[in-house]
Amino acid sequence: MSEFSDKTRSSNLQNMQDQVLDLLIIGGGITGSGIALDAQSRNLKTGLLEMRDFASGTSSRSTKLVHGGLRYLKQAAVKEVHEVGSERAIVYNNAPHVTTPLKMMLPFYEDGTFGPFTTAIGLDVYDRLAEVKHSERKYMLNSHDTLEREPYIKAEGLKGSGVYVEYRTDDARLTLEVLKKANDLGALVANYIKVTGLLYDADDKICGVIFKDLITEKTGEIHAKKVINATGPWVDNIREMDHSNTGKHLHLTKGVHLVIDHDKFPISNSIYFDTPFHDDRMMFAIPREGKTYIGTTDTTWTKDPKEPSITATDVTYILAAANQMFDLPEFLTPEDVESGWSGVRPLIQEEGKSPSEISRKDEIFQSKSGLLSIAGGKLTGYRKMAEKIVERVAKQLDLESDYEFLPTQTKDLTLSGGDVGGGKYWMEFFDKEVHEGIINYDLERDEAEKLVQRFGSNVRAVYKLLPETKTKARLPRIDWAMLNYGLQNEMVEHPIDYLLRRSSQMLFDISHMKSIKTPVIDYMSKFYDWDEDTKQRMTDEVNQKLDLSDLKQVKKQYLDYKKDH
Question: Domains in the chain, please, with CATH?
Answer without folding.
Answer: 6-59+172-248+356-400 (3.50.50.60), 101-169+251-355 (3.30.9.10), 425-553 (1.10.8.870)
